[in-house]
Amino acid sequence: xxxxxxxxxxxxxxxxxxxxxxxxxxxxxxxxxxxxxxxxxxxxxxxxxxxxxxxxxxxxxxxxxxxxxxxxxxxxxxxxxxxxxxxxx
Length: 89
Description:
Layout: H1 2-6, E1 9-15, E2 18-23, E3 30-33, E4 41-46, H2 47-55, H3 57-66, E5 71-74, H4 76-87
């Protein structure tokens, strides 16, 4: 229920770990391997940086972004909501 409140469709491209689609708009939130059509935000970063982001999304997201290690295409505000999803773990 919390993931659905966040909403959005995301494309996550992780160097050396592949591409993943995250759909928080459907009836059931889902993650699928590969690319999604028309994501609201596309996020690109290296797999080790993703691990850092996932471990501590509140403090690491902006650090990675301003260091140029996390790149966002599309709706940047939507991309910022993704850290809320990682905080649900």
